[in-house]
Structure formats: structure tokens, C-alpha cells
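Onboarding guide, step 5: your first structure request.
Type a short instruction followed by the sequence, for example:

Predict the 3D structure of this protein.
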Amino acid sequence: MSNRVYVTVQKRGVISLPPDVRRRHHLDEPGAQVEIAERTDGVIELRPQVAIPADQRWFWNERWQAMEREADADVEAGRVARFDSAEDLIAELDDGE
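The system replies with C-alpha cells like these:
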């Protein structure tokens, strides 16, 4: 897909990306940046850069982070069990039935 949009360069070099472009590339999220590459042929490229890569976004959502904090609290409070082998873990799980 190719989409051509013209934006005005304002004083001090400021440009505004259209809202649909910002949403599509997650540039409306905190910490998002745009990489600017100036090629030798005079072309200026803009590449979206987000603080959290899309394939890791699931880990940083509020629900998952709450579960991470809960797990950390369990480890700190000693509410964990350690096993010497996978077989020992399975045996413990089987005993709990």
C-alpha cells in the first residue's frame, strides 16, 4: 500500500502527521518517536519507532503488569515451591488432586 500525504512545514521545522497515520503506526502512544533518515539522493524518510515493540505490547499492558507484581510479591513472601526436576513438580501436582 502506498499513501501520499502532504504536510506543511511550519516555523522552526515543525510538521504534524495526520491522525490516521499516527494511529496506524502507534505514534499516538507515549514515548513514540520518528526516526529521520536523509538519503544521499535527497529523499527524507520517516520511520516510526515506538518505545515498546508491537510484539511485546502484551507484556506491558496493565493487567499483565499487575500479574507480574503479584508473582513478584509471592516470590518475595516465600509463597513458592522449588523442585529438583520436572518429575518432582508433576508428582506434587498429581498429589494435589
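Each response can be followed by summary notes, for example: The beta strands are 33-38, 44-49.
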